[in-house]
C-alpha cells in the first residue's frame, strides 16, 4: 500500500513559480507589522499576560514573522522552477480588479448605489468576456438586485449619490431611501 508515507515524504516541499518573490514580500510585510506593533498596541501594568491588549497581536505577528522567515529559507533551499516572472506578472494583472473596485467605490457617492452597482456589474461582465444579450441583461439585473436587496430590504446605510439630488422631489425621496 502506498498510503503510508515516510516523514521525509510527508514534509517534502514543492516549490512553485514565484515562491521566492512571495516569500520575500511576506517577510517584508511581517517585519513591517512587527516594527509597528509598539505604536499600535500597549502593554498594561498589573494585567495578566493573556489579558494584555498587546499579547495576541504580538503572538500572531511574531508567529507570522517566524513562519515567513522559515518559508523564505525553504524557498532558498528548494530547487528553482522556471516561470517566476510569469507568475509575478499574473499577480500584478490580478490587481487590475482591485483598481476597478476602487473606481466603483469612488463613483458611488457621485452616481448613487444603484446606478454604480449596475454599471459595475455590467462592466465586469463585459471585461471578462460575456458579450451576449442574455449575459448583459443578467449582469444589469444582478447589479439591480444587489442594490435593492442591500438598500431596501436590509436597510444598509450606503451614501446616496449626488445624482439623486437632481431628481424630482417625489422620486428623490424614494431614491434616497430605497435606491
UniProtKB/TrEMBL annotation:
<keyword id="KW-0472">Membrane</keyword>
<feature type="transmembrane region" description="Helical">
    <location>
        <begin position="20"/>
        <end position="37"/>
    </location>
</feature>
<keyword id="KW-0812">Transmembrane</keyword>
<feature type="domain" description="DUF1468">
    <location>
        <begin position="22"/>
        <end position="159"/>
    </location>
</feature>
<feature type="transmembrane region" description="Helical">
    <location>
        <begin position="57"/>
        <end position="77"/>
    </location>
</feature>
<feature type="transmembrane region" description="Helical">
    <location>
        <begin position="135"/>
        <end position="154"/>
    </location>
</feature>
<dbReference type="Pfam" id="PF07331">
    <property type="entry name" value="TctB"/>
</dbReference>
<dbReference type="InterPro" id="IPR009936">
    <property type="entry name" value="DUF1468"/>
</dbReference>
<feature type="transmembrane region" description="Helical">
    <location>
        <begin position="98"/>
        <end position="123"/>
    </location>
</feature>
<keyword id="KW-1133">Transmembrane helix</keyword>
<protein>
    <submittedName>
        <fullName>Tripartite tricarboxylate transporter TctB family protein</fullName>
    </submittedName>
</protein>
Amino acid at each position: 500500500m502506498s498510503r503510508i508515507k515516510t516523514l521525509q515524504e510527508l514534509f517534502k516541499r514543492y516549490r512553485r513559480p514565484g515562491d521566492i518573490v512571495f516569500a520575500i514580500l511576506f517577510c517584508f510585510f511581517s517585519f513591517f507589522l512587527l516594527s509597528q506593533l509598539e505604536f499600535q498596541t500597549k502593554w498594561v501594568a498589573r494585567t495578566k499576560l493573556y489579558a494584555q491588549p498587546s499579547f495576541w497581536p504580538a503572538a500572531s505577528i511574531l508567529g507570522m514573522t517566524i513562519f515567513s522567515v522559515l518559508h523564505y529559507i525553504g524557498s532558498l533551499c528548494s530547487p528553482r522552477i522556471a516561470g517566476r516572472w510569469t507568475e509575478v506578472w499574473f499577480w500584478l494583472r490580478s490587481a487590475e480588479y482591485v483598481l476597478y473596485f476602487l473606481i466603483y467605490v469612488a463613483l458611488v457617492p457621485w452616481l448613487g448605489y444603484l446606478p454604480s452597482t449596475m454599471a459595475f456589474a455590467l462592466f465586469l461582465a463585459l471585461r471578462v468576456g460575456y458579450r451576449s444579450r442574455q449575459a448583459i441583461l443578467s449582469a444589469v439585473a444582478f447589479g439591480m438586485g444587489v442594490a435593492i436587496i442591500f438598500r431596501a430590504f436590509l436597510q444598509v446605510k450606503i451614501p446616496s449619490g449626488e445624482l439623486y439630488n437632481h431628481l424630482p422631489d417625489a422620486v428623490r425621496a424614494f431614491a434616497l431611501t430605497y435606491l
